[in-house]
Design a protein that fits this description.
By secondary structure, this protein is mostly helical. It has two domains: 1-56, Arc Repressor Mutant, subunit A (Orthogonal Bundle); 63-204, Tetracycline Repressor, domain 2, CATH 1.10.357. 71% of the residues lie in helices and 0% in strands. The chain has helices at 2-11, 15-30, 37-44, 48-54, 58-79, 88-104, 107-113, 128-147, 161-178, 185-202, 206-219. The longest helix has 22 residues, at 58-79. 17% of the residues are buried.
């Protein structure tokens, strides 16, 4: 009997989880955010101070939902026993494929809250925390890629690689939202092609050979 009670205690949802799930449920049922915190807490049957202990606004809840999806994705990818053996390109591919799998379980909520047309040049407020976490991880990958020579060191443009990969992140979300193919096969193809293109561009290519040759000619004229 005591074991059953202990099991119930361990599976009991935390207040923040209850608030998040209640918020998602409200959006799915009504097609929009609650009108006010007052009405929302009555719906959830919690006290106002309990809400503000965990979130200061509905926008904050939305940020946390997306950040959790990102963190769970990264945790899953890094937890794979072969992750450390992957090339930097493979790590990025694994991240995006896993990220899309995570998004699938939240698709109804995302379709209700995310515009069908995402403007890559503008980061939505609900992704601001994800942007920081994503770029922190990406910069680790970029350093690793330079060490393994998968990524060419370029003094000026190299500082913008993390911004370019963030735009790719937004592109993938936008593509997936509009994707009506079976099992989102088109999104998988878009991920593969866009990631390969990004790493081909960041790697050593014909342009670098031309620049090196130009330097050689200049130094030996």
């Amino acid at each position: 009997m005591e074991e059953k009670k202990a099991a119930k205690r361990t599976t009991r949802k935390s207040p923040s989880e209850k608030i998040r799930e209640g918020y998602i449920a409200h959006v799915l049922e009504h097609g929009k955010a609650p009108e006010s915190v007052f009405k929302f807490i009555k719906e959830l049957k919690i006290k106002e101070e309990e809400f503000y202990e965990h979130y200061n606004s509905f926008e904050n809840i939305e940020k946390h939902i997306w950040l959790m999806i990102f963190n769970e994705t990264l945790e899953t990818v890094k937890g794979d026993s072969v992750y450390d053996e992957y090339s930097v390109r493979e790590k990025m591919l694994a991240f995006f494929y896993t990220f899309i799998e995570r998004l699938k379980s939240h698709r109804s909520y995302i379709l209700q809250t995310v515009p069908k047309k995402i403007r890559p040049e503008l980061t939505p407020y609900y992704l601001m925390d994800v942007k920081k976490a994503f770029k922190d991880w990406v910069n680790e990958l970029l350093l690793e890629g330079e060490e393994t020579e998968e990524i060419e060191k370029r003094p000026v443009i190299g500082k913008k690689y993390d911004d370019a990969l963030w735009l790719q992140f937004l592109f993938v979300i936008g593509f997936w939202i509009k994707d009506d193919s079976k099992a989102f096969e088109k999104t998988d193809a878009a991920i593969e092609k866009s990631v390969n293109l990004a790493f081909d561009l960041m790697g050593r290519g014909p342009l670098d050979a031309i620049v090196d040759f130009g330097k050689f000619l200049f130094q030996n004229r």
